[in-house]
Design brief:
CATH superfamily of the largest domain: ATP-grasp fold, B domain
Number of domains: 3
Strand order of the largest sheet: 10-9-8-7-6-11-12
CATH topology of the largest domain: D-amino Acid Aminotransferase, Chain A, domain 1
Number of helices: 13
Radius of gyration: 22 Å
Shape: globular
Helix content: 25-40%
Number of strands: 12
Strand content: 15-25%
Length: about 350
């Protein structure tokens, strides 16, 4: 299915979502949820108690944040399959028991180099800035002056500067109306305030033509969760991060890449049907890149992948060995603790126990 160039219009048309006020007490929160759900407080308390002691170990704040009181969001889905943050961290540790390999996947510079060395599509790194490192390197910038000089020599090329350990990326030279010297000053000042962090300088990758607006456009990555077990690797869940003012998220048909629903990331109850022709370009190749990456990182059972459809084809933007499960649960309106995932976890627990015996 072919995508159409309407992503920018969707971002502008998205309904505005404001979070609930955060300065009230627990009784106010209970009253607010009961009113929103149209339920007596006693019934709401029973619903929460069942989820708090259930397999997902839901906390009070998560009951509200994930809108687990709202049947309009979850419908007939078994809410006991939804996992809270603490339970999620425990399950991820079980799935990714090889903690000795965590740094390889958690650091963007290391993981990108590892993936690229095995032929997988990643964003190339033009230079690395790390203040005060003693050993010189061909692409290593060790001072603000070196960083400033490098950027000044690349003003004709739109760039992205991002921390190697993950975090917010900053674009440079992507707007002809901005002063390049002022942009360089801002980024040099910004990275200088974060000692001990490596910063990657990369080219700004153009999105797939079907997703770009007439004036350009930003990448809209797909977050895929992969499971890797004894029978191989597969994509388990996927959501499309369209971004924009409300951080718009699309649920996806895993077979076709077609968008099913759209919703603000923090407002799942405001979801609406996606346009019929909205789909991720190069979907089969994009999925294949994540699956091949999961096979390559065979030490891990559960990984999150950010893969974008670009003008050059699918490109891996990052891998996360401790992925956030909330966005997939909310977008799909079902928890992750379905039978397939439970069977996967049982296998990983067994493999973990066997691996630890070999290390004793």
């Amino acid at each position: 299915m072919t995508a159409v160039p309407i992503v920018s219009a969707l971002k502008r048309a998205a309904p505005f979502w404001r979070k609930w006020p955060g300065n009230d007490g627990p009784l106010d929160a209970v009253a607010r949820m009961a009113d929103a759900a149209g339920l007596p407080i006693s019934r709401l308390a029973l619903d929460y108690a069942a989820l708090a002691v259930g397999p997902g170990r839901i906390r009070p704040s998560e009951f509200e944040r994930l809108r687990l009181y709202d049947t309009d969001v979850w419908g007939a889905a078994d809410r006991r399959e939804v996992v809270g943050a603490a339970r999620s961290r425990r399950l991820i540790r079980q799935a990714n028991f090889r903690r000795d390999c965590l740094a390889l996947a958690a650091d963007r510079l290391a993981s990108n180099a590892y993936l690229a060395a095995h032929g997988l599509p990643t964003v190339p790194t033009l230079a690395v800035y790390h203040a005060g490192v003693a050993a010189p390197g061909r692409a290593l910038l060790r001072s603000r002056d070196e960083l400033r000089q490098f950027l000044a020599g690349h003003t004709a090329l739109p760039l992205v500067v991002r921390p190697a350990e993950g975090g917010h990326a900053r674009a440079l030279f992507d707007d002809p109306g901005r002063d390049p010297a002022a942009e360089i000053d801002r980024i040099v000042t910004h990275v200088g305030d974060t000692p001990g962090v490596s910063w990657l300088v990369q080219p700004l990758v153009a999105p797939h033509p079907a997703l770009a607006s007439p004036t350009g456009g930003s990448l809209t990555p797909v977050r895929l969760l992969t499971l890797a077990g004894e029978r191989g690797a597969k994509v388990f869940r996927a959501v499309w991060r369209l971004g924009g003012r409300d951080d718009l998220v699309a649920s996806l048909d895993l077979k076709t890449g077609r968008a099913l629903t759209l919703a603000p990331a923090l407002g799942p109850h405001r979801a609406w049907a996606a346009p019929a022709r909205l789909a991720v370009p190069d979907w089969a190749a994009l999925k294949a890149a994540a699956v091949e990456g999961a096979r390559l990182f065979g030490q891990f059972g559960l990984l999150g992948w950010d893969v974008a459809a670009t003008a050059e084809g699918p490109m891996i933007l990052g891998v996360d060995p401790e992925p956030d499960l909330d966005v997939c649960q909310l977008a799909d309106r079902r928890g992750v603790l379905e039978p397939e995932f439970r069977a996967f976890l049982a296998e990983r627990r067994r493999l973990g126990a066997e691996w630890r015996r070999t290390q004793a």
